[in-house]
């Protein structure tokens, strides 16, 4: 079956995304190489992506899915081959776009704001799930309120310091109390591999909405589809109610 799976595939649970995703096989292989390589296979990149892809095509790549050490079942995903390490000395989060008060937060600024802790299941659209995972951070709504969102605004766009990943939410979604700019995950600071020092956490949606290595929040008029959404995944990514699924709602 020549199924198109633009999302980093999870071989343990090969449940397909919505049929008809507009992406080709070649792009899938590119995605596999860059997305599913993970921590374990990273050195292979230095030998050249082409050779690597040649060596895995046609084989079961299960062993290449990067299970994070002590990750409690999380898979490592990045659409880029490398991500710069950023820490509290140089982390910046910009808030811009259709707001009265654009600005920049340091990690200390974010820590000084009220923190909210959410315990919720993490669900990747490819099937893997990590139950009851604590996330903690600043409600996105707090940052939006502080920025003063213009009446003309309808959406929020997120950018990442990996230089490639993007995400979007409608303004209504962004203002939900279970959407966090997360500084902690599993009761520890968000690690680099999990998108630290700051990642988005959109609890009621598939985990691709939870942009790692968050560096920009831009208020826009309309939703601009994010990285995976340009590759066929739903913008409104409610767990169990999107991407071809229609289970009992979980949010
Ligand atoms: N910047 C960035 N954020 C991202 C991704 C990515 O590749 N780059 N992958 C998404 C997907 S598909 C998933 S399942 C989760 C994985 O998070 P984890 O690596 O902490 O398990 O991050 C999401 N956020
Ligand atoms: Mo994912």
List keywords for this structure.
single chain, alpha+beta, Sulfite Oxidase, Chain A, domain 2, 5-stranded antiparallel sheet, 10 strands, 14% helix, globular, binds molybdenum atom
What does this structure look like?
The chain has 251 residues and is α+β, with helices and mostly antiparallel strands. It has a single domain (17-231), classed as Sulfite Oxidase, Chain A, domain 2 (Alpha-Beta Complex), CATH 3.90.420.10. 14% of the residues lie in helices and 23% in strands. Strands 2-1-10-5-6 form a five-stranded mixed sheet. Strands 3, 4, 7, 8 and 9 form a five-stranded antiparallel sheet that branches. Mean pLDDT is 79; it is low at 1-5 and 10-65. Molybdenum atom binds next to loops.
In short:
With 251 residues, the chain is an alpha+beta fold.
List the helices and strands and how they pair.
Blueprint: H1 25-35, H2 49-56, E1 93-97, E2 103-105, H3 107-111, E3 116-123, E4 129-139, H4 140-147, E5 155-160, E6 166-170, H5 171-174, E7 179-185, E8 188-189, E9 199-202, E10 214-220
